[in-house]
């Protein structure tokens, strides 16, 4: 039986902290664990390599807010004496150190679930492989509308923290229907160049559907099965009973860490046909989380983390079709600025599958 491992919003939502930097103590009382704009990694500390001078500056009920000041080796003893004098008792000092340990544990937990390797030896394999279990990849998508891209959009994907470029996609001007080439190069979108072309996103034969393939050959243009393109995902859109946009995603099941292989001869076969067969365990179905109606705001809304900062009809959350936990998601996509969107991806999806799904958000027009 195929299982999914979503990441809980509770794991990355606003976190009450008991330690903050004295320059921004009012701003950092609450922060998103993954929002490096608010608290860069250079400000995060470990008791193993930084000497701390803690000073209680504010109290909120039973919670105390402390300033953190780095100290040099020369005045370490003086700072330690001042700390002991301020705390004035062993009990209060133990309480403060306990708070520091709690904060350090939270930071360690953040590193355990955040996944963004600095060195990627094989970009194509990295982008097409499922995100590791219990990890989350955080990316930022940029829509480029400059010049000719205003008519044939180009999308670029980066790691959110390091802004390391991952891949880009551009709509092909020679095609009447939506057809995107996904490349590891920001300027080269030649689908025949296998060294940079990672995949193709094409409008399907079924209404409001899209198919994601690798850089293999069209089966109608080759007789060699080994060079035939592999199908990575199928995306379907429809209107719900409330008139809202609904997303259905079909991807190959991941068994023993490897996605199942689909090389359809036509669009009517492959993943879609396999899914239509009853009790087929080679295909997984993922769906968009339906919004809930808010009487207070008189509107439908979804529960996002702070990485989604602006309302947009492109925003969505993807979950497994049998998921019961309202706090977990497999994909979270939402607007965070003008032509900027944040994308969080979890197992069993790959970065390429998630990126292609986000592109379809800008192409679909339900009537």
**What is the makeup of the main sheet?**
12 strands, antiparallel, barrel
pLDDT < 50 runs, ≥5 residues: 13-54, 57-61, 63-74
Shape: globular
Strand content: 25-35%
Helix content: 10-25%
Mean pLDDT: 76
Order of helices and strands: EHEEEEEHHHEEEEEEEEEEHEEEEEEEH
Number of helices: 6
Structural class: alpha+beta
> Between the first and last Cα atoms, what is the distance in angstroms?
37 Å
Instruction: Output the radius of gyration.
Output: 24 Å
Structure commentary:
It is a single chain. This protein is of the alpha+beta class and 367 residues long. Helix content is 18%, strand content 33%. A hairpin with a 5-residue loop joins strand 11 and strand 12. It is globular and about 80 Å long. Mean pLDDT is 76; it is low at 13-54, 57-61 and 63-74.
How do the helices and strands line up, and which of them pair or pack?
Elements: E1 7-8, H1 9-12, E2 14-16, E3 19-21, E4 30-32, E5 52-60, E6 63-70, H2 76-87, H3 90-113, H4 123-128, E7 136-144, E8 154-159, E9 165-171, E10 179-183, E11 197-203, E12 209-213, E13 231-239, E14 245-252, E15 254-255, E16 258-259, H5 271-276, E17 283-288, E18 292-294, E19 299-301, E20 316-320, E21 328-329, E22 331-337, E23 340-346, H6 351-363
Parallel strand pairs: 3-6
Antiparallel strand pairs: 1-21, 2-4, 5-6, 7-8, 7-23, 8-9, 9-10, 10-11, 11-12, 12-13, 13-14, 14-17, 15-16, 17-20, 18-19, 20-22, 22-23
């Amino acid at each position: 039986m195929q299982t999914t491992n979503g990441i809980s919003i509770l794991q990355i939502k606003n976190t009450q902290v008991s330690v903050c930097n004295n320059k921004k103590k009012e701003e950092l009382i609450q922060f998103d664990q993954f929002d490096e704009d608010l608290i860069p990694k250079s400000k995060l500390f470990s008791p193993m390599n930084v000497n701390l001078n803690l000073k209680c500056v504010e109290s909120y009920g039973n919670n105390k807010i402390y300033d953190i000041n780095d100290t040099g080796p020369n005045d370490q003893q003086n700072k330690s004496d001042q700390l002991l004098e301020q705390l004035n008792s062993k009990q209060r000092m133990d309480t403060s150190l306990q708070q520091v340990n709690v904060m350090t544990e939270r930071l360690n937990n953040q590193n355990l679930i955040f996944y963004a390797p600095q060195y990627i030896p094989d970009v194509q394999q990295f982008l097409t492989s499922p995100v590791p279990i219990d990890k989350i990849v955080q990316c930022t998508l940029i829509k480029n509308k400059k010049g000719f891209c205003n008519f044939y959009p180009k999308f670029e994907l980066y790691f959110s923290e390091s802004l390391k470029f991952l891949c880009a996609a551009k709509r092909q001007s020679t095609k009447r229907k939506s057809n995107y080439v996904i490349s590891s190069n920001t300027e080269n979108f030649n689908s025949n160049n296998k060294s940079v072309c990672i995949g193709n996103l094409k409008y399907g034969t079924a209404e409001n559907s899209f198919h994601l393939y690798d850089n293999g050959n069209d089966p109608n243009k080759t007789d060699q099965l080994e060079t035939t393109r592999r199908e990575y995902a199928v995306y379907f859109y429809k209107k719900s009973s409330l008139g809202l946009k609904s997303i259905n995603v079909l991807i190959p099941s991941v068994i023993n860490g490897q996605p199942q292989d689909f090389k359809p001869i036509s669009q009517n076969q492959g993943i879609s046909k396999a899914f239509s067969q009853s009790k087929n365990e080679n295909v997984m179905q993922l769906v968009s989380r339906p919004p809930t109606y808010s009487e207070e705001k008189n509107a439908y809304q979804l529960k996002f983390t702070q990485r989604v900062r602006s309302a947009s009809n492109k925003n969505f959350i993807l979950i497994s079709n049998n998921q019961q936990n309202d706090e977990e998601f497999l994909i979270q996509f939402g607007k965070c600025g003008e032509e900027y969107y944040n994308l969080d991806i979890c197992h069993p999806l790959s970065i390429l599958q998630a990126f292609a799904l986000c592109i379809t958000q800008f192409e679909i027009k339900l009537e």
